[in-house]
Give the backbone structure.
Amino acid sequence: MSDLKELLLPRLCPVCGKLLMESEDVLCAFCAIQLPRYRINSNNAGNKFFDNILLRSIWDKADVRRATTFLSYNHDSPYHNLIIAFKFHGKSDLAVKLGRWAAMEAERQDFWEGVDALVPVPLHWWRRLKRGYNQAERLAQGMAEVTGLPVVNLLKRTKYRKPQSQLKGAARIRNAEGIYEAAIPDEWRGKRLVIVDDVMTTGSTLANCALALQKADKSAEICIFPLSFAGN
Ligand SMILES: [Zn+2]
């Protein structure tokens, strides 16, 4: 959206549709307080980032060491509009903001310890061109502002396929197979990398990204941080 259009259109909260006050940034104060945070619990006494439902749903697909998320993803909740707004309605500033909040919450719980870089899940170049930005990269930029970590584009999406949101179960896994490739320069070998995405459903996208990174560098330690998680 152009700056001029932004100035002329009333600014609305993407969740409740209320007119935003000048002091309110990208969503209204009420909706910001009520954000549906995902509470990650560990099944054992250890650190919850090393054994939780996100890791358990991806373990059979890829070797991922650490995982967390920020929001609970629910298709029927008005908060679903947040994802729609930054994914389809050009609200990339909202993605940066949510990335910042997600990173702050994770920082309070020491998620970032020993992490070397943030790696966004890539879009196919054609979709990136149409959208004007990669929402996962904007989320990672927000996380970078908080953590000081670099955002490194080590992954490439090689094939254009149907969006995962249009597919179910096994079809998602097949659809995501072999469409990511990684090229890892020497300076990024043997690092602890956090893959960033907007929504984790079955985990097939994140698993395939993890596999691509590990194929390119066996010594890479992979962690995942989807902004939201659809499991329960
Ligand atoms: Zn609101």
The longest helix spans residues 92-108. Residues 13, 15-16, 18, 27-28, 30-31 surround zinc ion (CB under 6 Å).
